[in-house]
């Protein structure tokens, strides 16, 4: 198939990844290409040059409009909308068999655009008004919507999801997150360092439990880092930087427990299954999809309860490393995820052909 992938534009789709959306889109482009599809990535122009890039905007907008995401800036909105509108027109005229839309933009959900190209839209966030109503009005033949978890589905549709909506769990390549049969007694945390990711909760719980902790990931919120994370570094709590690829997998895999600390309704939690693939059990906060993703591979604590999270750390250490690894192999591999994507593409193409 000739597949257009439409990405979010805040960060480049390139390692080291700024977050799960970038990692998801990169893995989708890489995996579909490996399975023999012709893939064009519509993304920021400074994304990974190993892919065929059709730039939506010249560079990711965190570079050209730094710090303005979620602030309603009119200039940023006009910049992004113009890029997406032109990209959607190129996709409509480009002879693509299917569009996989990961953009979080309302523009690919316009009825005329959906009529032009069979489309799968993957949602990566809880609902918000700037997107919710466009998504709910877009459920027409030839368009399928996916969420990453049942928990996320319930946040978008409190009752039963309508036809055309399905859960598409994320997946990881076990070869990229290799299993290690023993840990070194320490804890590890990775992700975007921002309040919603709960880095401060991981630090507080590790200190209380007396377990050394290493943090990995990009500092997204400098004020948060300066006030709530950096002052607690030193001794058993350290920051290992923003790593990617084999270096990050090695660091995560050598730990004995992974801290997963969402402080929002986390739609999935890709970092958790990355650690689980390495054999690392999870101690986490029960928000969003955490229980659905972690299952028997970890122990979860209620939100805002550092004492319970510290106790969960100790309990998770007792889980055999074969348990999280087996859960990933059963539910969350890249091959399972890509096969489900291909099945969705076939469905929207068949529906679209019936409309013509």
UniProtKB/TrEMBL annotation:
It comes from the Bacteria. Pfam families: Glyco_trans_1_4, Glyco_transf_4. One of its GO terms (molecular function) is glycosyltransferase activity. Keywords: Glycosyltransferase, Transferase. Residues 19-175 form the Glycosyltransferase subfamily 4-like N-terminal domain. This is Phosphatidyl-myo-inositol mannosyltransferase. The lineage of its organism: Bacteria, Pseudomonadati, Pseudomonadota, Alphaproteobacteria, Hyphomicrobiales.
């Amino acid at each position: 198939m000739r597949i257009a992938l439409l990405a979010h534009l805040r960060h480049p789709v390139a390692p080291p990844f700024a977050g799960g959306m970038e990692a998801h889109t990169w893995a989708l482009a890489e995996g579909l290409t490996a399975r023999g599809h012709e893939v064009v990535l519509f993304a920021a122009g400074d994304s990974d040059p190993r892919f065929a890039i059709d730039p939506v905007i010249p560079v990711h907008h965190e570079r050209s409009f730094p710090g303005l995401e979620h602030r309603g800036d009119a200039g940023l909105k006009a910049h992004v909308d113009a890029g997406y509108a032109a990209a959607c027109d190129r996709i409509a005229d480009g002879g693509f068999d299917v569009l996989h839309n990961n953009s979080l933009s309302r523009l690919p959900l316009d009825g005329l655009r959906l009529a032009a190209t069979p489309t799968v839209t993957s949602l990566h966030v809880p609902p918000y008004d700037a997107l919710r109503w466009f998504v709910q009005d877009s459920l027409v033949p030839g368009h399928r919507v996916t969420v990453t978890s049942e928990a996320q589905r319930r946040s978008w549709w409190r009752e039963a999801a309508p036809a055309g909506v399905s859960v598409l769990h994320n997946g990881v390549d076990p070869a990229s997150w290799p299993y290690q049969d023993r840990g070194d007694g320490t804890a590890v945390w990775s992700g975007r360092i921002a309040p919603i990711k709960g880095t401060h909760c991981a630090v507080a719980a590790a200190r209380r439990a007396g377990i050394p902790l290493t943090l990995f990931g990009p500092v997204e919120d400098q004020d948060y880092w300066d006030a709530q994370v950096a002052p607690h570094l030193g001794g058993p709590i350290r920051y290992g930087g923003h790593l990617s690829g084999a270096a990050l997998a090695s660091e995560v895999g050598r730990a004995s427990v992974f801290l997963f600390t969402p402080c929002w309704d986390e739609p999935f939690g890709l970092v958790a299954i990355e650690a689980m693939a390495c054999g690392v059990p999870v101690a986490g906060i029960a928000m969003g999809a955490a229980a659905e993703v972690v299952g028997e591979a970890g122990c979860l604590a209620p939100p805002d309860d550092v004492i319970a999270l510290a106790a969960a750390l100790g309990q998770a250490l007792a889980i055999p490393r074969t348990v999280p690894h087996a859960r990933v192999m059963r539910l969350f591999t890249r091959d399972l995820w890509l096969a489900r994507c291909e099945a969705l593409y076939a469905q929207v193409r068949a529906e679209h052909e019936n409309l013509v």
